[in-house]
Amino acid sequence: MKKQWWHDKTAYQIYPKSFLDTNGDGIGDLPGIISRLDYLKDLGVDIIWLSPIYVSPLADQGYDIADYYGIDPRFGTMEDMDRLLKEARQRNMYIVMDLVVNHCSDEHFWFKEACRDPEGKYGKYFYIETVRDGKLPCNWRSYFGGPVWEKLPGHEDKYYLHVFHKKQPDLNWENPALREEIYKMINWWLDKGLAGFRIDAIINIKKALPFRDYPADRDDGLSDIYNMLRDAEGVGEFLGEMRDRTFLPHRAFTVGEVFNEKEEELPDFIGENGYFSTMFDFSEAVFGRGMGGWHDDAGITPDDYRNCVFKAQKRVEDIGFLSNIIENHDEPRGVSRYIPEGEASVTSKKMLATVYFLLRGLPWIYQGQELGMENVPLHSIEEVDDISSLDNYQVAIRAGVSPEKALRAVEKFGRDNARTPFQWTGGENAGFTTGTPWLRVNPNYKEINLEAQAADPDSVYQYYKKLTSLRRDPLYKETLVWGELIPCLQDLHHVMAYFRKSEGQTILVIANYQKEGRDLPLPGTPGRLLLTNGPQPPIQEGRIYLAGYQAAVLLMEES
């Protein structure tokens, strides 16, 4: 595999609405991001992905775009965006934006024109069908619940397709004219100085046509959208064309949000000439999810987490680089999902950080993850903002689940968990805003905040700085970035261990994934201890003692 400029970098996701507010309106903004670039640089961040800041009615928090060429005034101006790009370049940092092109907003000019004239040019930018006798073209269920079809405003017999929210009409990628508009927009941003894109929900751009029903899987008579996606063929034709027309000429960095790719297509996605530079590994995030909704989730154990990670690493070992995460804006906080309930602590948070960050691939940090931010407690569904959480709550209630249990499922998996404001200080509103935050601050901000952790050498934040520093250390970079990943001790319960191996160097990452301390066999002869989240672990006669949730990174002696 050819070495790429982004392989040895650390990436960071910012959710702008919740990062830092500088004008007191309760919403984070671009000036707030600019003011914290030095903080991110000091943390060890190189690539910054901004969740959507385009003009939007925010039906789905900016993933419903009304103008691809405009910055929403809530976040600032295009001048602010230009200044962010300039300030980032001066620090050798790279800015990546969200590319949301499966759908736009129903307030976009294209859709307004489609409503005015469904048979005209812009009507063909969408999937608009004539419905007779009340029979919808198909029974697919949208990601946010309900049918994927909604009546076209101003037309009694015409419906448009939306696989997400009804304010997010799907764009018709089968139309070459629509694709040209998208490529023009992508190149406009790349010409402006953007380093690349995180590509949103991209597998959905190819539908299984013609529209048809699938067997219903709930009592609503609808079928999960994934049933259709399994039958959809030919998405690669669109993705390859987009790559060749936009990303390749600019040497852009791209990371795909890809679910349900077919196994044989993996090299096409992230191989030598892949559609994208890399793609996120979601295998741990989706593990345990039931067809019934969040209340039907089986959960994930430490052994499940380990097995998911190693299986994903095995899939791509000779193909390309994964992007490794424990959380993002669509997921609960990683420390609340992957650490058993009641056992989240400074030590266990550092352990989880160690085992995911040093995997082969590009490590991503989601804002607040470096502080060990946790899920937010809920007392009422009225406290919830996220449309997906509200839908899952209703799905649970309709399934006969008690309101208390339904609320607990939202508390555990809801997207608001990751969207609460960044906890900068222990002061009012966690230092996020002088106004009223758009979403309530997690009440634990007085205990978990950057101000306190920056002054504490043993904090989660300081440990993340050690991880970013270790991965880019010239003595170990060849191994920790490009080295082979070899799992070990897989037969041991609640142990996660693996080698990172390059020519002439082997590093062992080993973690005791439980609260009880234990004596573990060492698969090899240890040399120098490079990093640990606890006391110096005793090593004797080929064994190592690790305290509860202790991880160790060891340079091994070569035989």
- How many individual domains? 3
- Structural classification: alpha/beta
CATH superfamily heading of the largest domain: Glycosidases
What's the CATH topology name of the largest domain? TIM Barrel
Low-pLDDT parts are none
Query: Regarding CATH, which class of the largest domain?
Result: Alpha Beta
Percent helix, as a range, is 25-40%
Radius of gyration: 24 Å
Largest sheet, in brief, is:
8 strands, parallel, barrel
Mean pLDDT: 97
The beta-strand count equals: 23
Q: Please tally the helical runs, counting DSSP H or I stretches of 4 or more residues.
A: 18
Which strand order spans the largest sheet, edge to edge or round the barrel?
1-2-5-10-12-13-14-15
The CATH level-2 architecture of the largest domain is identified as Alpha-Beta Barrel
N- to C-terminal separation?
27 Å
> Outline, from the CA principal axes?
globular
Give the percentage of residues in beta strands: 15-25%
Features:
18% strand, single chain, 559 residues, Immunoglobulin-like, alpha/beta, 5-stranded antiparallel sheet, 18 helices, TIM Barrel, 8-stranded parallel barrel, Oligo-1,6-glucosidase, domain 2
